[in-house]
TrEMBL record:
PROSITE patterns attached to this UniProt entry: GNAT
Domain N-acetyltransferase: 2-136
Name of the protein in its database record: N-acetyltransferase
UniProt cross-references to Gene3D superfamilies, sorted A to Z: 3.40.630.30
Phylogenetic classification of the source organism: Bacteria, Bacillati, Bacillota, Bacilli, Lactobacillales
Xref: InterPro entries: Acyl_CoA_acyltransferase, GNAT_dom
């Protein structure tokens, strides 16, 4: 049985075990802002999605992670579909996300209807990384 719900404070340990980029204090802010979801399979949390707003108006998925043991089984698609539906119901017409060009996530998002929308190169000392690819989808 699959369920998706907003993240709550008691998800902290699970969340931080999968999302190693989010500082602990930001997790609690995401909970308070209701901009984080947890995917549950048979009573166990197995995935997460967090977002913010690009230009304060466009929903921007900043992290999607499914536990490794559950990857490749459609859970990520389920979570993104849920998030997109929530955004559409809230009146948004466009969603965004991004991924590094050396990651496979770009192929996942393209299969879900996202289109390439440009990139960002960070080469300042201490911030170097492969190009960040931005993707958008009209809802």
């Amino acid at each position: 049985m699959i369920a998706i719900r907003l993240a709550v404070a008691t998800d902290e340990d699970f969340w931080l075990s999968l999302d190693t980029h989010l500082p602990k204090e930001r997790f609690f802010k995401k909970v308070a802002e209701q901009t984080a979801y947890v995917l549950i399979d048979n009573g166990q949390p197995i995935g997460l999605l967090r977002y913010n707003f690009f230009w304060d108006t466009i929903p921007f998925c900043t992290m999607l992670v499914i536990a490794e043991s559950h990857q490749g089984r459609g859970f990520g698609k389920c979570l993104v579909d849920h998030w997109e539906q929530q955004q559409k119901e809230a009146g948004h017409a466009l969603c965004m996300t991004s991924t590094q060009v050396d990651e496979n996530a770009q192929h996942f998002y393209r299969k879900l209807g996202y289109q390439d929308a440009g990139g960002l190169l960070l080469n300042s000392p201490g911030f170097e990384q492969p190009m960040e690819l931005f993707l958008v989808k009209q809802l």
